[in-house]
């Protein structure tokens, strides 16, 4: 019996193989035969793009390599439709990071935001001025110095 993880890996490998082939597909001009798993694009929902280019007629699963961890990933047709048509992503944008790496960035941003909110609510230190840096340097008055001549 295969474990769930093994089965998931097999399914992923199969989809990756298929997505690699689909990369060469011209989704803008080839509409006669829809490839397996293709999802039709709704051009009404793509109107937020200010472009002279063409919109795709459909989306297909595409493979990509995560730019952070280098893992081979699939950007599914369904995810693309959501990104371009629901989230109104730019038509020229593509998936570059895997879910894990995106989550890491999202979590880090959330952590920083939380920290800043906590700091804003914190009572200021009794000697707050001390932490705001050293007092501004006062330029020495050079007018009273004796003039030295050279040579
Ligand atoms: Zn990654």
Structure in a nutshell:
The chain is mainly alpha-helical and 151 residues long. It is built from 4 helices and 4 strands; from the N terminus they run αββββααα.
Task: Write up what this structure looks like.
- With 151 residues, the chain is mostly helical.
- The chain has a domain at 4-96.
- The protein has 4 helices and 4 strands.
- The protein has helices spanning 4-22, 77-86, 99-121, 128-131, and strands at 39-40, 58-59, 62-65, 72-75.
- It has a two-stranded antiparallel sheet with strand order 1-2. Strands 3-4 form a two-stranded antiparallel sheet.
- Strand 3 and strand 4 form a beta hairpin.
- The termini are far apart.
- The model has no long low-confidence stretch (mean pLDDT 87).
Cα separation of the termini: 96 Å
Question: Which percent band covers the strand fraction?
Answer: 5-15%
Number of helices: 4
Task: Please count the beta strands (DSSP E, at least 2 residues each).
Answer: 4
What structural category arises from helix and sheet content?
Answer: mainly alpha
General shape: elongated
State mean pLDDT (0 to 100 scale).
Answer: 87
What is the helix fraction of residues, given as a range?
Answer: 25-40%
**Neighbour order of strands in the largest sheet:** 1-2
Q: Element order, helices and strands?
A: HEEEEHHH
Stretches where pLDDT is under 50 for at least 5 consecutive residues are: none
> What's the Cα radius of gyration?
29 Å
């Amino acid at each position: 019996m295969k474990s769930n993880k093994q089965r998931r890996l097999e399914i992923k490998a199969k989809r990756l193989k298929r997505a690699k082939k689909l990369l060469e597909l011209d989704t803008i001009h080839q509409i006669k035969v829809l490839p397996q798993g293709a999802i039709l694009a709704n051009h009404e929902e793509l109107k937020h793009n200010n472009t002279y280019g063409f919109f795709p007629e459909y989306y297909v699963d595409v493979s990509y390599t995560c730019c952070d961890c280098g893992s081979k990933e699939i950007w599914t047709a369904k995810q693309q439709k959501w990104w371009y048509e629901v989230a109104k992503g730019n038509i020229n944008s593509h998936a570059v990071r895997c879910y894990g790496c995106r989550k890491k960035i999202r979590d880090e941003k959330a952590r920083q935001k939380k920290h800043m909110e906590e700091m804003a609510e914190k009572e200021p230190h009794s000697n707050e001025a001390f932490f705001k840096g050293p007092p501004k340097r006062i330029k020495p008055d050079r007018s009273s110095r004796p003039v030295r001549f050279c040579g």
